[in-house]
Amino acid sequence: MRELEDLLRRHFLGDYRILSTEREGDGERLARHAIERGATRLVIAGGDGTASEAVSGLLRSGSSNGVEIALLPLGTGRDFARLLGLGTDLSASVARLESGRRRNIDAGRVRCRAPDGGERERFFLNIASIGLPAESTRWLQGRLSRRGPMSYVASALVGLARYKMPLTTILVDDRVAHEGPLALAAVSNGRSFAGGMRVAPEASIDDGVFDVVIAQGMSAASALWLFPRLMLGRHVGDRRVHVQRGKVVRAESEAAVWVEADGEPVGTLPCTIEILPGALTLCGLP
């Protein structure tokens, strides 16, 4: 934090205030508070989960027009930051806050069943997933203070042992895309998640549609064989994997199938996930 404050004083020409998160939900609350007080730029120093919370606060406030967001290369997975080409040089990222490029991008919105039985809404920048990745995320949350490549591998293995490939129906723009046992469905605005897994290698963050990557239910042995192909983005074309593009994804199951967004568990099916074209303006880009 001290390094960031020094860099802001050195490079940033505007007025600013540093707000720190301490627990889940703080990012959304602080972003809404800042916007209500007239902030026109949110600089997010954290990983995908922190960025997702802040974006949720921005979009839920109803005042996203005229508010820019910038990401600084901190956090663990940093899949979205890598997609943007931000690198790991914090000093360079702060310097770009005034001189960097701007880009309008899409965001996503998830509505699903909350753990208490009500409805929960969450916005996201990168990827929302259903099934095995969400189960892995649930296991990882709160167990490790620091996440890295091996923690994501460990959570995937634990998730595979816990997950039962439930019968699930998925519709993309009201067309049935999958009906049967489900391994995973990744509703992708960005291209990678879980610390570099290239689940949607052709996705674009500004084309107004999701790339929906669906892997049908399979044996544990088959899933283990597919895992390294997922890491490298070589799973597309596998007979058990198919990709569709669309704006609205709906999923339902009689089982308690979990949904996550940007690495954070949201709730269980049924869910609706929709694209918000051009909802955000990024600044400070290379």
Structure notes:
α1 packs parallel to α5 and α2 packs across α3. This protein has two domains: about 1-105 and about 280-285, Probable inorganic polyphosphate/atp-NAD kinase, domain 1 (Rossmann fold); about 110-280, Sandwich (Tumour Suppressor Smad4), CATH 2.60.200.40. About 30% of the residues lie in helices and about 35% in strands. The radius of gyration is 18 Å and the shape is globular. Strands 5-7-6-10-12-11 form a six-stranded antiparallel beta barrel. The longest helix is centred in the first third of the chain and has 14 residues, at about 50-60. It is built from eight helices and twelve strands.
Identify the notable features of this structure and list them briefly.
286 residues, alpha+beta, Rossmann fold, Tumour Suppressor Smad4, 2 domains, 6-stranded antiparallel beta barrel, 8 helices, 12 strands, globular
